[in-house]
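Input chain follows. Return structure tokens only.
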Amino acid sequence: MSVLGDVLDSLNSMSMLQLLAAFLACIGYAFAQGGLPGPRGRNVACAVAVMGAAGFAVESAEWMHAAVLLAAAVAGLGVFVAVVWITSSMLGFGRSGLQLSRDTAPAEAAPEPGPAQAQSARSSERAHAI
């Protein structure tokens, strides 16, 4: 059997604890890379991802197979993010589209002059004409 076949066969022999550790590693990685949590939340998510990855590797029968599976999961998340980014850019949901909508918003109209201001404007026009 090939090495890749051995790695894929190790998926069938995973325990529930290993699956939980893999889930925590992937979710922690996604939150650590995303903008949803604040800086402190990203640090916590990074720690959860590292501990989940370490737990997954420790619980695996072959730690090298676990490392390959974790690398494939990170690469899969990267491909997913790239596809979403390209799709949103093609549909016009990129950051530049949001900035354009703010820049092209109509400016507030200047308040119309009251009767006293209109009369003083007319008298100043007469003074300039004389």
